Structure formats: C-alpha cells, structure tokens
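Open question from group meeting: does this chain pack into something compact, or does most of it stay loose? Before anyone orders reagents, we agreed to write out a predicted structure and look at it together. Recording both the input and the output here so the notebook holds the full record.
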Amino acid sequence: MLTVQNLTVSYSGNRPAVEDVSFEIKKPALIGILGPNGAGKSTLIKGILKLVSSKGTVLFNQQPFSKIQREIAYVEQKSAIDDTFPITVRECVSLGLYPKMSWFKKISKTQWEQVNAALEKVNMLSYKNNQIGELSGGQFQRVLIARTLVQQAKFIFLDEPFVGIDATSEQVIMSLLRELRDEGKMILIVHHDLSKVDDYFDEILMMDQHLIAKGPTKETFTKEQLAKTYGAALGLGVL
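Structure tokens returned:
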C-alpha cells in the first residue's frame, strides 16, 4: 500500500510544483502518472522518494520511507543519467544488489548469476561486457530495468521510461512490468503518450500541480478528465 497525504513540493520559494496531493494505492498495480508538461509529474515522484524537500506524509505499507527504502527502486529519466561513466552493462545491473548488501562485501557467484538472469530477461545478456555508453537509448533503458529486477524491490518508480526508445525495447519492458505487477509489485510510471494509456495501466493519476483525478483507467481516462487535466493543449496537439 502507498499512502500520500497533502504532499507539497516547492522550489526556491516559488509557486508549488506539486500542491496538496493526496491519494492511496492499496494493491499491486501498474499506475500511470499523466499530465501536461510542467504538471509536476516527475516532482511528485521525487517528493514521494524524499529526493527533494517536501511537506506532507508518505507511507509505504504504513511505514515511512526511511524504514523501507531498500524495498524501493527508482529509474530516473535517461537524460539525467550519465551514460559516459566508464562502467560495463553487467556492473551497472549489479548496482541493484547494493541496497541489500553489507558494506565492503563482494558480489558472490550466485549474485552474478542473478545479474546475468536479469540481463537475459531483457534480452541484453550478450552485451554484458559492453560499456553502457555503447548502447542505444532502448538498450540502455532495458539495462536499467534489469538493475531493478536484481534489486527485487516491492515499489518501483519509473520516470518517462519509454521516451526515445525503439518499439522492441518498449514491448520488452512492458512485458516485464506486467510480470512484476503480477508478482505483487506496485509500479508507478510517469508517462506522456496518451494513445497507450488504456493498454498499459490498471490505474492512473491525472495532475496539473494538483491531483485532478485518480482511479481505474477505464473509469478515469475520460474526455472530461482529459479536458480538466490538459485544457487547451488537448486541442492544439502539443501534449
């Protein structure tokens, strides 16, 4: 369960990027976070994960973030990640092991096998010794998902994972996310492509600084709620 109460995030004393947002998600699901550019979608995730200063209450299974952070995985936008860092694909995926490892403990043979298994799931095992900078955008996104797999987190947050990737990578990632949902994971995804919302998400949050609507996709993704969320941008085709 994820409970968010009265979450507000402001930058440098300006108008809140996210203001007084409250919602609850009670069971494993794929949840899309929708809204126009500048709506605070990414900021909402960062506020929930204590990556930015915020006001309000956030509980994961009725526990604060500090008590459960090892059970949380976060994949930020690819544009915010330095893919020139000299690290191999296999080493990048192995970073998902560290939240649950003791200090200075080496990765075991069994854990390396887990890394390889995760890479195989995303069809990237043959690239395990490549530098991450050699990968395409879609390949790199698959590697980041593999890192999430080895972490075995209960709560997964993805910020625009499908931007700038190929259709094959998107299909591979969505298939894995559905599997993870079915295994009991809660997955929140900042998403912008409205044409795929019905197919991708069990529930959606629609926001523009404030929460505008939240609920099952079939009931919530309506023309009325789209108009409230996107306003004039909906008719101008600038979503």
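Observations to bring back to the group:
The chain has ten helices and nine strands.
The domain at 2-236 is CATH 3.40.50.300 (Rossmann fold).
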